[in-house]
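User: Can you help me understand a structure? I only have the sequence.
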Amino acid sequence: MAIATVNPFTGQTEQEFEPHTDAEVEERIAQADAAFRQLRSTTFAQRAEWMRRAADILEEDVEQLARIITIEMGRPIAGARAEVLKCAKGLRFYADNAEEFLAPEPLDDPAKVNASKAGTRYAPLGVVLAVMPWNYPLWQVLRFAGPALMAGNTGLLKHASNVPQAAIYLDTLFERAGFPAGALRTLLIPASRVEKVLRDPRVKATTLTGSEPAGRSLASIAGSEVKHVVLELGGSDPFIVMPSADLDKAVSVAVTARNQNNGQSCIAAKRFIVHSDVYDAFVEKFTEQVAALKVGDPLEETTDIGPLATESGRDELEQQVADAVAKGAHVRTGGTVPDRPGWFYEPTVLENVTPEMRLYLEEAFGPVASVYRVADRDEALALANSTTFGLSSAVWTNDADEEEWFAENLDAGAVFINGMTASYPELPFGGIKDSGVGRELAAAGIREFCNLKTVWKG
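Assistant: Let's start by predicting it. Here is the structure, written out as tokens:
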């Protein structure tokens, strides 16, 4: 894939960028390494001052950045603006909390280990390579970079090739805020050149948000180099609705949970598992609201659904739905590519999805919802856990026993009760099974790229 901004609303190439040469990549790795040696010796107070300034810059640039996001990957402008502001909030969260999260932890009774003092402390690792996707081109990067830099690490960013303007903006953000030059450096390179960067001895760890195949490839390289890795991969999140749920609220949230960001989110609800007692009412209301979503120009404030980010992604989604329909799935609404320019797919609701269909096991990365009827909570749980993914989940019930039962038994990195999955700086984020390893955000996220060092004194 060329490194270029291709507007998904028009299909037209707006700007192309030359990949960095080997010499330029070497220079940027050296800059990140040198910046680490400066940054690790600064205080938390100094880093926090710079980090808050970076948040201020994001807010000052919000309209420029929102437009870049929308033009590069098609997210409706209101959501793009919200993404920028969420990034600023996340940076301030780590400015406020990093020192507490990484404070030394003394052992209460060092005599038990024959010491006068003993405990642990956190130390930064060094340069971390971040391989990031296009679907949240700022948030995915900054939820890594904020904690990483506050811990004293520096970063190299290999962003998706279809969001180069976002990547170039991020290349200078932290330097503009006062961080040492090179604290975060963008590498404009194709995926084929990532391995060489990761094997560089100055790069100490890596993180990837993206597809399962990409995660497996990066993890195998990191493993051969004995380098720490954090992976946030795909998801096929269940959205379970039980008879005691507030049905109108569940439907309203379900529409957003499936279709926000044009349905292109790992943590989007994708499989709607509904108890038979409320199935017909849920599907009728859900279908009506999905069909009413406004599809159109993502730069218009009232647009709900814009184009998918890439033509290949739109074509993949079309093939998944066609496969399901050919094997007996029923389309309640949507299910077609509209006759218009751009990489659009109609918001879709499917019933009667069965295990022989691709959609049953694969992640649908676009505005396509599969609805399943179940007889009881045991069947709901079995269906929810039947996927190889385990990123997040949602359960709608007002039965306290059911809430606890699902929270305990769902195989996922998160369970949201009577709400939709979202990422918050205050809570750890990540999955299990094929959805990844490690955690981002909260205290767990900043500690991922630290050396937990034991210190003992006799």
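Now, to help you interpret it: The chain has a mean pLDDT of 98. The CA atoms of residues 101 and 443 lie 5 Å apart. Let me know which part you'd like to focus on.
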